[in-house]
Amino acid sequence: LGVHGMESRRCCKITRTECADGSVPKYVKRYYRPRGSDTCVPYHYPRCSQNEEMDEQPIQYEQNCQDLCFKGPEKRISPLFTLIDN
């Protein structure tokens, strides 16, 4: 069992203010599941290098986060739009 009692450490938010080589990370949109939350949320992942990102494997899409961080009945995607019946 991973961090926070979930299947994968990938479900956790990765934070850092400096890369291993001393440079400043480039922030890109990734997803994680906050502890106790019933949804995945976007955050600014501090990307340092392709190798580091491949090692950490932050979650790029909300659907992937749902698949990785929730068991079947827990899965819920925030609707991008709502259908209205007339």
Approximate helicity band: 10-25%
At the fourth CATH level, what is the homologous superfamily?
Pancreatic trypsin inhibitor Kunitz domain
Q: Under the CATH scheme, which class?
A: Few Secondary Structures
Alpha-carbon distance between the two ends: 47 Å
Instruction: Count the beta strands.
Output: 2
**Element string (H = helix, E = strand):** EEHH
What is the third-level CATH name, the topology?
Factor Xa Inhibitor
Task: Describe the secondary structure blueprint for this structure.
Blueprint: E1 26-32, E2 41-47, H1 50-56, H2 62-69
Antiparallel strand pairs: 1-2
Protein name: BPTI/Kunitz inhibitor domain-containing protein
Explain how this protein is built.
This protein is an alpha+beta fold and 86 residues long. It has one domain (3-74): Factor Xa Inhibitor (Irregular), CATH 4.10.410. Strands 1-2 form a two-stranded antiparallel sheet. The protein has two helices and two strands, in the order ββαα.
